[in-house]
Amino acid sequence: MKIYLVRHAAAHGRDPHRWPDDSQRPLTPEGEEEFRLAARGLALMASRVDAILSSPYERAWRTAEILSELDSWPAPEAVAMLEPTLPPEKAALVLEDHAGSVAVVGHRPGLHELAAYLLTGDSHGMEIGIKKGGVACIGFDGAAKPGTGELCWLLTPKALRSLASQP
């Protein structure tokens, strides 16, 4: 099993006047454009996934929608347990229902804590930094059980875009 932890692409800054509900804050046009190219780079590393699970927040959901535009990638599923402030133990429960390869689209700090939890079994004391639009791949010999994952790779959005632009 492989889990691709995808941090949402670049979004507008917090602005309570424009988005009183921060869950509605969207990606910037540049963020969408850059992530579309990064997604093509990701597709070279993972030609398909069995599921795309996403935080329902607008910026993560739109990132997941861009992933679903890739050949052989499914439509995203909204998962409330991937909201940014929920503990990683809740997000990990969702993964128990899936086999194969899963893309998980989320936010900081939840996504970073989920990475640490899957790798070490503890979400504290370890920081896996995933840049906006970046991806961490965690592999498992069997089911995605906390503390049994292995970090396969961690790529910045710039590295993913570079992969996409290779001939």
Can you count the beta strands?
Answer: 6
Order of helices and strands: EHEHEHEHEEH
Number of helices: 5
Give the N-terminus to C-terminus distance in angstroms.
Answer: 29 Å
* Structural class by sheet pairing and helices: alpha/beta
Rg, alpha carbons:
15 Å
Note the overall shape.
Answer: globular
Which strands sit side by side, in order, in the main sheet?
3-2-4-1-5-6
The average pLDDT value, as a whole number, equals 94
Please give the share of residues in helix: 25-40%
| Portion in beta strands | 15-25%
Describe the protein.
By secondary structure, the protein is of the alpha/beta class. 33% of the residues lie in helices and 18% in strands. The chain has five helices and six strands. It has helices at 29-45, 58-68, 88-95, 110-120, 157-164, and strands at residues 2-7, 51-54, 76-78, 101-106, 135-139, 150-155. The chain has a six-stranded mixed β-sheet, sandwiched between helices. Strand 2, helix 2 and strand 3 form a beta-alpha-beta unit. The protein is globular, with a radius of gyration of 15 Å. The two termini are 29 Å apart. The model has no long low-confidence stretch (mean pLDDT 94).
In short:
This protein has 167 residues and is α/β, with parallel strands linked by helices. It contains 5 helices and 6 strands.
Task: Spell out the blueprint of helices and strands.
Elements: E1 2-7, H1 29-45, E2 51-54, H2 58-68, E3 76-78, H3 88-95, E4 101-106, H4 110-120, E5 135-139, E6 150-155, H5 157-164
Parallel strand pairs: 1-4, 2-3, 2-4
Antiparallel strand pairs: 1-5, 5-6
Helix pairs in contact: 1-2, 1-5, 3-4
